Amino acid sequence: MMQARPPAVERLAVIGCGLMGGSFALALRQAGSVGGIVGHSRSPASACRALELGVIDEVAPDAADAAAGADLILLSVPVGSTGAVLAAMRESMRPDALCMDVGSTKADVVAAAASALGPRIDRFVGAHPIAGKERAGVEHADAALYQGCRVILTPTPQTDPARVARADALWRGLGARVSTLGPAEHDAALAAVSHLPHLLAFAAFRAVAAQDDAQTLLSLAGPGFRDFTRIAAGDPALWRDVLIANRTQVLDQARRFRAELQSMEAAMVAGDADAIEALIAPAAAGRSRWRLGG
Amino acid sequence: MMQARPPAVERLAVIGCGLMGGSFALALRQAGSVGGIVGHSRSPASACRALELGVIDEVAPDAADAAAGADLILLSVPVGSTGAVLAAMRESMRPDALCMDVGSTKADVVAAAASALGPRIDRFVGAHPIAGKERAGVEHADAALYQGCRVILTPTPQTDPARVARADALWRGLGARVSTLGPAEHDAALAAVSHLPHLLAFAAFRAVAAQDDAQTLLSLAGPGFRDFTRIAAGDPALWRDVLIANRTQVLDQARRFRAELQSMEAAMVAGDADAIEALIAPAAAGRSRWRLGG
User: Fold this and answer.
1) Which of B228, B236, B257 is facing A207, going by the closest CB pair?
2) Which residues of A touch B211 (CB under 8 A)?
3) Contacts of A291 by beta carbon, 8 Å cutoff, 6+ apart
4) pLDDT tens sequence across B200-218
5) Which has the higher per-residue pLDDT, B267 or A132?
């Protein structure tokens, strides 16, 4: 399938110059679809690093200043900061601006946006690119991060349909596969396949690291442990916000997980090899069939 | 550091022609260190596939026949089959043969070997290469699988020291980093960094797959889920045996994990963002610092 070039952007404002925002800027620039890129980060060092790396063209002193003059605003901050950042930008936003986020939860983000933007909520399109790398930070930004990646848009009845179409064309132009979900449906699904796995990986790494011989244990860990715990290296502020914002759904998923774990532990306690195999076999077959983007 | 060529092997017998055994055969052949390779698998189709792929030179009808004439025997079968396979080979083994396994548990394997081989237990060196790939089977065998991989040898006072030295030189010659542990110490450590992660990945995949909208959920899963659940694609018979053989240690590790999970869930229930971040941050920092083979 031919990948259409992303629609032209005069001026992109990236709020939060990390892996996600930086990769978006690089990809849009590589596509030749952006005039200029301004960035702002809560930590000035991050924005300066993005400038040094050529990811952005200018550093703005605050979010309001970054938003002024931008026809596309990409918010890449911990989800709990969405409301405050949008409120700060409300007055300086261009009337024709499209504002998107990249947060991992959507019900809280969409509600915070509605509250912060008031009647201007039509300008905001919730977006979640399901992408990631082991290393965060703008140093690891990658123009190819969104190639083949799934992006979920979560428009509401208040969202301007023309802006949804523009958001869709932008992400597709960067090689993403775009789909649309309601904010609540998004959060329920992502609790199962992303948020709970992060919670489990954090807990599993903690459990190893807390042991007296942790250094020996970690030196014996192999590629299975590496992959299983990769997501435990995620940004603490980002995941703090996700686990709090979506806690009802994540706790529900944790309950389902614990029931499965309990069944497996019970079979082990009983020394019942057949029962263990009967529990493992469908998971192994299912996971062997599963493909990313399949 | 120069990698010495592995010591010469006249005839290698591979019992269990899968990913691990097949990769060992390919690596030894690529090093130019083996005269001939005979293989046997419980499923004749696997051995035939290994023959077609040029991984082995001959298919033996049973383990005893495969062992006859081999100066190196590599056992790559589910750990619960170790005793039966070694007993079948006992009478046909060459007096100067070195027999190694590649199993993920060692206390049960060493005990089964002692019982099956009797006074010939001096010929057996327990070995565990901590390697793996998403796909099992001889089709995925890879001459480079053991390059940089850690291999743990678990000799006992009954093991012939000359054979331990030969095992050490063989694995080092294939590029592995070799260390030695007692069988019980091995099992305690691997419960933490390998067996429990497998148990958790199986349970996590089961929990998603059991939901009514599992297909939708799995279609929304991204690279984090892919890596977190990779090990859930492991061979069910192999992991059945590991989880049963090492269940005391794995259940102890599961208890430690559940305590960590419970702390995190309690902070979420309380909506305590600071507590969540305080729990995540050390895990994220620790996992960011950790390197495979570091």
Assistant:
1) B257
2) 192, 256
3) none
4) 999 999 999 999 999 999 9
5) B267
Lowest-confidence segment of A108-122, B37-51, B123-137, B241-255 by average pLDDT: B123-137
Give A235 to chain B, closest Cα distance, Å: 7
Binary contact (B236, A284; C-beta < 8 A): yes
Across the interface, which of A190, A247, A268 has its CB nearest the CB of B243? A268
Residues of chain B positioned with their CB less than 8 A from the CB of A241: 273
Give the span between the Cα atoms of B44 and B41, in whole angstroms: 6
- CATH code given to domain A9-181: 3.40.50.720
For residue B135, what pLDDT is reported? 77
Q: Which value does ipTM take for this structure?
A: 0.93
A3: pLDDT strictly greater than 90: no
CB contact under 8 A, A228 and B228: yes
Nearest by CB to A132, from B193, B222, B239: name it: B222
Residue A85 pLDDT exceeds 60: yes
- The token pair at A211 is 């042991």
What is chain B's mean pLDDT, rounded?
A: 96
Contact A228 B201 (CB under 8 A): yes
Residue B1: the pLDDT is 52
Q: Under an 8 A CB cutoff, do B189 and A213 touch?
A: yes
What pairs with residue A73 in β-bridges? A13, A99
Residue A30 CB coordination number (10 Å): 12
Q: How far, in Å, CA of A16 to CA of A238, rounded? A: 12
Of A59-73, A128-142, A164-178, B260-274, the range with the lowest mean pLDDT is: A128-142
CATH hierarchy code of domain B186-289: 1.10.3660.10
Min distance A121 CA to chain B CA atoms (Å): 26
Which residue of A19, A179, A240, A241 to mutate against B (max B Cβ within 10 Å)?
A240
In angstroms, what separates the C-alpha of A204 from chain B's closest C-alpha? Answer: 6
pLDDT tens digits, residue range B92-127? 999 999 999 999 999 999 999 999 999 999 999 999
Interface test with B, best of A211, A226, A287, A291 (most B CBs within 10 A): A287
* Alpha carbon of A157: minimum distance to chain B alpha carbons (Å): 23
Give the SS3 label for residue B262.
helix
pTM beyond 0.80: yes
How does DSSP assign A14-33, residue by residue?
EES-SHHHHHHHHHHHHTT-
Give the integer Cα–Cα distance in Å for A278 and A89.
55
In DSSP notation, A75-106 reads: E-S-GGGHHHHHHHHTTTS-TT-EEEE--S--
Domain boundaries, chain A: 9-181, 186-289
